[in-house]
Amino acid sequence: MTVRFNTADVDGLKLFYREAGDKSRPTVLLLHGFPSASHMFRDLIPELAAHYHVVAPDLPGFGQSDMPARDQFDYTFDNLANVVDRFTEVVGLTKFALYIFDYGAPIGFRLAVKHPERVTAIVTQNGNTYLDGVSDAFAPVMAYWNEPSQANRDAIRGFLAPETTLFQYTHGVDDPSKVSPDGRNLDDFYLARPGNDEIQLDLLLNYQTNVPQFDVNQAYLREHQPPVLAIWGKNDPFFIPAGAEAFKRDVPQADIRFVESGHFALETHAAEIGAAMREFLGKHVG
């Protein structure tokens, strides 16, 4: 299994991506979340690459992709989705299954709504699109949505602190010593780049645009009935299990599973999640 580390020119924006597997096989597009990048899939890619063509980009402002200044790039979820949409075209992905996690969910669902014919299946790992799945941990962010003052913006800077990254990686894990420090330390490195804090705060403010999009996403699910595997770290403090179970309202055949982990479930359960994905994708996309 060989992973290649590439960059694509997406209308002048450099997007870094990891790629593995035979291009003639069905494609799985892995979309990361906050505050991570495609390195979060370092253990999952080997689980999939013998059977699938796997592509995992870093979003603009994350990881190894370009981080244009805020006055040169609009850091919104609509715009991130537009960039990923163009990325798929630039690298020649005409059909793909989606793996959506955290921020990857609103981005991936925008792609699916826009191009339902391209999406062969959806694997959501703590990737929410239901109010049922939103926990009280979002209260400070919601306060910022309701009153986007400088004081409320400063109040959520703690979301960018190393202590919060550590919490995201280890909360809900039975044994934190099972969680490698590599991923979270790399996340903290990227967060500490000059100007990245303001980019992340812009995205936290813009996340409110994803809430009205929930209805659109749910209508897409009801109309198109894509195969859905919701495999959730059940102890996630941000996106709670009810968000996984809610998929059955719109896709009754959805496969709902839980693993004994937290938000970053791949850190402890990549082999189990990879096996579930191979079983699921084998049934639905070959």
Secondary structure blueprint with pairings:
Layout: E1 3-10, E2 13-20, E3 27-31, H1 45-48, E4 53-57, H2 77-90, E5 96-100, H3 104-114, E6 119-124, H4 139-146, H5 150-155, H6 162-170, H7 181-191, H8 196-206, H9 210-224, E7 228-233, H10 241-245, H11 247-250, E8 255-259, H12 266-284
Parallel strand pairs: 3-4, 3-5, 5-6, 6-7, 7-8
Antiparallel strand pairs: 1-2, 2-4
Task: Describe what this molecule looks like in 3D.
This protein is α/β, with parallel strands linked by helices and 286 residues long. It has one domain (3-284): 3-Layer(aba) Sandwich (Rossmann fold), CATH 3.40.50.1820. The protein has helices spanning 45-48, 77-90, 104-114, 139-146, 150-155, 162-170, 181-191, 196-206, 210-224, 241-245, 247-250, 266-284; strands at 3-10, 13-20, 27-31, 53-57, 96-100, 119-124, 228-233, 255-259. Strands 1-2-4-3-5-6-7-8 form an eight-stranded mixed beta sheet, with helices on both faces. β3, α1 and β4 form a beta-alpha-beta unit. α2 (77-90) crosses α3, α3 (104-114) packs across α9 (210-224) and α6 runs antiparallel to α7 (181-191).
- Beta-strand percentage range: 15-25%
What about the largest sheet?
8 strands, mixed
Low-confidence stretches: none
Order of helices and strands: EEEHEHEHEHHHHHHEHHEH
Widest β-sheet, arrangement of strands: 1-2-4-3-5-6-7-8
For this structure, the CATH topology is Rossmann fold
Keywords:
single chain, about 290 residues, alpha/beta, Rossmann fold, 8 strands, about 40% helix, about 15% strand, globular
